Amino acid sequence: MPWYVKLEEGLVDKQRFDAVVPDHRRWLEQLERDGHQPRSGYWADRVGQPGAGGMLLFHAADWAEAEALVRRDPLVRAGCVRWWLHEWRQVPLRNETTAPGPN
Question: What are phi and psi of 72, to 5 degrees?
Answer without folding.
Answer: -90, -5
